[in-house]
User: What shape does this take?
Amino acid sequence: MSIIIGGMTVVSVQFVAQNTVTDAFQSVNWNINMQPNRLWVLGSWDPYKTQVGKTVSVSFTTYASRASNGSLDPNLIQPITLSPSTTCENSNARAHVIIHVDACGPTSEVDVNLENMYLTSYSYAKGDAIGFGTESWSFQAWLASDVTGTEFLEIPDPSYILQGRSEGSYSGNVGSGPEDMGLVLDADGQVTGQQGSVSAGFPGVGNADDITLGLVDRIGGGRLDADGQMGQSSASIPHQPLYIG
Assistant: This one.
């Protein structure tokens, strides 16, 4: 077990056609996942072959990039327009992610350095009326497993990573509309419901909000500060690896 020192851990993210972002990260999580799929045959407890896939997922939280006057902090992640794939081409919702972790223990340092990590989800949260808004971003990469041995069947790198149409929702009263909560929705196909809760006792207060769902055209650029206001949003960006022999 290693102890990670946050004050000495460096994160860098560079989206396609954006500046590199290295500031205002609050937390980061990563997972390098090997996925063995064993092929069994009758009469043996030994696998005939083992197919191995490899994915890397990264998520991080940063302070929201839009100030109360509407300006965007150039050192933080800028709004990203989502463009679903119309041909066999890689999604544009991708970034070069670098994580250099300093740690104490058996693992002295950990490095993740991937040029093509694909954005899979986004969320904005301002849950405190006098607090600050944050944005969370999640990525995934599909990689060749780099295993050796005659018993292994390696899954190669995908030929393409296709981007589908994104769905999302928002609720709350931060700013003047969903753009201040990090979402721009397609004008067509929006639907609105409601959510709320209240409890007995003192002070016995609750809340009720409309929640709007729709197709998402752009994400990012949520408000950092909006005193007296709360809100949240989320979006899912589907990606599909495509293998062409």
Remarks:
- The two ends are 41 Å apart (CA to CA).
- The mean pLDDT is 90.
- Residues 3-242 form one domain.
- The chain has one domain: 3-242.
